[in-house]
Structures are given as structure tokens and as C-alpha cells.
Write a structure and sequence with these properties.
This protein is of the alpha/beta class. It contains twelve helices and twelve strands. It has an eight-stranded parallel β-barrel, surrounded by four helices. Helix 3 links the parallel strand 2 and strand 3. The N and C termini lie far apart (45 Å).
Length: 305
Amino acid sequence: MTQPKAEAMPEPVVDQAGIATLARGCSIEMNVQDAPQLRRARSLLSPGKKVYVSHLPKQTWQQTIDACHEVREVGFEPVPHVPVRLLDSARTLEEFLHQAANRAQVAEILLISGDYPQARGPYSTVAEVLRTGKLGEFGLRRISMAGHPEGHPQVPLPEIRRAEREKAELAQAAGLQATLLTQFFFEAPPFVEWAAGLRADGVRARLVAGISGPASIATLLRYAVRCGVGPSIRALGARPTSMVKLIGDHGPEQLMRTLAGVPRPDVYDGLHFFTFGGFLRTCEWLQRVGAGEFTLDRHGGFRVD
């Protein structure tokens, strides 16, 4: 299937309102070790904020449920990650969905295959879980799934594109509101081209850009290599000299300002923030950006005051 040629990127938005709106409407990711910070986060994020709970290596399903319960207790909307290749049986899937729905009032999950070479049980792909119809049986009405604008290092690009469309179609057929949430990236054009291709093919899923919160360059490079971030990784070294002095930190300001100039929901629907161990730091940053406490700069980004 031929992707439409990417159009020229729009000039970065010149007013602050669009950037602040993106910050207020975003979702955010945490891991189970961030749970003690949730009460502090309640003073920084708006009630009902979607908080995705990641699934770390060696993490148990019960730990995920417990973290989702804590997210719900402080007034946020929990969205647990479910790597389907770690489900060792259909019964494990059913028990997880039952506990998630009943203990944490989970209404949405993020289904991913998971970067594991072999499945522990009957599911190797997200599509296989969707075909079971189990999500609807346990009251789920929404689903998030992975999108890969820059591809995946272990999967051929045509297979990635076929799977993205298949997942969206299966979710729609099951009566689920679908979101394709992308792997993180550092430059906008690959994401815009990817989103335009899906829209041109009639995909009606919500399209959400996953980007990194403020973090050290060393941390971002480590996760980028592990997760297979594509050519946009070059943007980590393309900052003005004055920014390099900030203890090796990299923020999403320039990317976020560019994305604020891309039409929503015609092209995409919003942002999601990966925090890479800096959950509370990203919450604090989002609170200030959402409140408009920043100044646009001449490099196409902005500076939080």
C-alpha cells in the first residue's frame, strides 16, 4: 500500500494557546515503582487524566492491577499495558480482565505484542486477542494499540503497516473505540506522514503521538536503542549550543511546538508522554506548560519559565 508523500511541515505555532491545550489534554505513562508519587501528581494533573501503567520485565499481573487501583484511587483513569506474549493461557487473560474491570474500574487497556521472541501461551499478536471477543465481555469499550511511524527493528515495514490497519479494523468490528499510540520519536515528519497514510486509507482510530518527557540524553538514547527509535533519533544531537549545557538534558519543546501546528483531529488526536523513570518530573513540567508558564524561543521551541 503506497503511503502519500509527506507534505511540508507547517511553521511552528506562534501562540501559546495551542501548546498549552496539548499539554492539558495529553495522557502520561508511569511504572509500578512510581505509585508512591501518585498523590503528589494529583495536585499537578487534572482529574480523569489517562495514566498508562507500563509492564516491566518480571512484573506480575497482580502488580499491574494494584498500580491501576492506586491510579483510580487518586482520581485518574488507569490504562494498563498488556503484552500479549506474556499471557500464558486464556484463563490468565480472563482473570486479568476481570480484576482490572472490577478492582480498578479499568475501561481501556493498551494491548501490545511485547518484545519477547516466544509467546508463553496462545497469543503471539494483538489481533489474536482481539478475535477472542474477551474485551467486550468484561466491559471494556476502548483499546489502545501500538503504532510505529518509523517502523520496528525486528519486523519488516510492510508487516507493521498491515498489522496496524488490521488491529484498527478488528477493534472497530468489536465495537471498541481504538487508539493507535505511537512509539516515541524526536522529529515530526515521519509521524505526520504515517498519520496521513492511515487517514487516507480510511482508518478511523484515534492517532496519538507518543513523545518523551524531559530527560537526560543518556536516558533517552538508552531507551531509544532498546525500543528501536528510527532516524528521528538524530534530533538528540541537533540542539543549539546553549541548550547542550543543561546537564545533558533534552526536552520535547521543539517537537511539541511543531506538533501544535499540525491540525487536530484531521491529522492526529493528541499527545502521550513517556516518562522513563521521571514520572513526577514530567507531571510538574506538564502542569507548568498547561498553565502557560513558558516563553516561545527563536529556535522553534519554548522555555518553561
